[in-house]
Write a structure and sequence with these properties.
Radius of gyration: 19 Å
Helix content: 40-55%
Distance between the termini: 40 Å
Number of strands: 8
Structural class: alpha+beta
Strand content: 15-25%
Length: 280
């Protein structure tokens, strides 16, 4: 059933091979920031030195030196698998910083309101470094619920419906980099679907975000799961969305006709959610 196929989705943030990106600007601080961003997306599993160098575009010896210094002060930790992950000291620092959500109660209220209208599972995610961090999940009355992701999970943009809605607002070069990473981490659940067919489906979703303002359809992120997602109208200086809202359900719950009926309420919800998302 859907639950058994979705249970491993959160593990998809671990990456064995990363597509390269342009190196950060000159100076040590931008390099430290890029490395910490990459570690945040890698999650508890952490990332290899090689992966971090490829992901950040920073020379491997430099990454190694910075990691050693960050480890010495508790901002980074090394694992038994010879990977690097965020250190516990970052948690304490994070508690002192403002979060991306201005009013968590209101945000959850708006998401629950949409769940009440559509009857299905609603997610709200905010952009987090090169991924999406889920801040709430609400349920409707339909008994079969698509619990693929937990609040607090951080996943790559290409692995979730909220992520696709955000990714569709990013520049083409950023989209290509993310798709390059996605090709290397396809879940075994997709063994029956060709990579080319799946990629074409993903590209169509990104084009729909740009052309229609939303992405919708079955099997975009996990087999047997349909989704509908659109960006929340809060943007960074470059015009990229900072958040998204999505509905996840079984295929029969998100037919083209039903999607057309839900979209007005979903757009209204996105506008209300914008009032609870902090600008960068």
């Amino acid at each position: 059933m859907i639950g058994s196929q979705l249970c491993g989705l959160a593990a998809l943030h671990g990456r064995d091979t990363m597509a390269s990106r342009p190196a950060p600007g000159p100076g040590t601080i931008p390099k430290i920031a890029a490395i910490l961003d990459a570690l945040a997306v890698a999650g508890q599993e952490g990332a290899r030195l090689k992966d971090l160098a490829e992901d950040t575009g920073i020379a491997r010896p430099t990454v190694h030196r910075i990691l050693a210094e960050l480890t010495a002060v508790g901002l980074v930790r090394s694992t038994a698998q010879r990977r690097y992950a965020c250190g516990s000291k970052l948690y304490a620092l994070g508690l002192a910083a403002p979060g991306p959500v201005l009013n968590a109660d209101r945000l959850r209220h708006e998401a629950q309101r949409l769940s009440g209208i559509c009857g299905d599972t609603v997610y709200v995610g905010v952009r987090h470094a090169d991924g999406v961090r889920y801040v709430t999940r609400t349920s409707g009355t339909y008994p079969l619920r698509a619990y693929a992701i937990d609040p607090g999970d951080i996943l790559p943009l290409s692995n979730t419906y909220c992520g696709l809605a955000i990714l569709g607002t990013l520049p083409a070069a950023e989209q290509e980099r993310e798709l390059g990473q996605w090709r290397r981490r396809r879940s075994p659940e997709w063994v029956a679907t060709s990579s080319a067919k799946h990629e074409a489906m993903m590209r169509r979703a990104l084009a729909d975000v740009a052309e229609l303002g939303y992405a919708a359809g079955p099997n975009h992120v996990v087999p047997e799961l349909s989704g509908l997602s659109l960006p929340v109208p809060v943007h960074d200086a470059a015009g990229a969305a900072l958040a998204a809202v999505s509905i996840s359900a079984v295929h029969s719950r998100l037919s083209p006709e039903r999607i057309r009926g839900i979209l007005p309420s979903m757009r209204e919800t996105a506008g209300r959610l914008a009032e609870s998302i902090a600008l960068p």
